[in-house]
Write a structure and sequence with these properties.
- The chain is an all-alpha fold.
- The model has no long low-confidence stretch (mean pLDDT about 80).
Length: about 160
Amino acid sequence: MKKQSCILPFYVFSVIVFQLFFLATMIFFYDSIIVVSPFFKTLSREYWNWYLNYRSPYSNETTMISVVYILKAIFSFLFIIGFLYLLSDKKNRTVIGKKNFFLAGGVGMLVYFVFFFWIKYQAVHYRLFMTLFSTELLSLTMAYLLWRLKKEGRLRAQTMDGGQV
């Protein structure tokens, strides 16, 4: 019980910190246009010409891109480990319910694929905050599972104590 009481607040804190980081990236670096792998976004010759000759880079652009990619990797790792922790613990799995795990994972993957195809075929520019979409979905999935754990745990505690639900 002691281990769980330390781990779950850590993941709640991680979700909140990542949400603040994602919002800050969206607000302050919205105009930051980057080039990514052709798998994600194919570029025409005209776009390359514009990108290399006419686009004005902002100060410390490479540093900010590096920081975003490093933090993305750290938070993605944390959220995947947290998801696996919640899934592996029998008590958490019972409280949250297998249906909610599959629902959260399925909705997250569906939304990711919609964003992926929208970025690949509809978005004109690939902006820096778009790099964080996958981690944002992991964060929201983790937040949903933690919320379900808290909600269902509270309901079970009330019914065990004989209280009204």
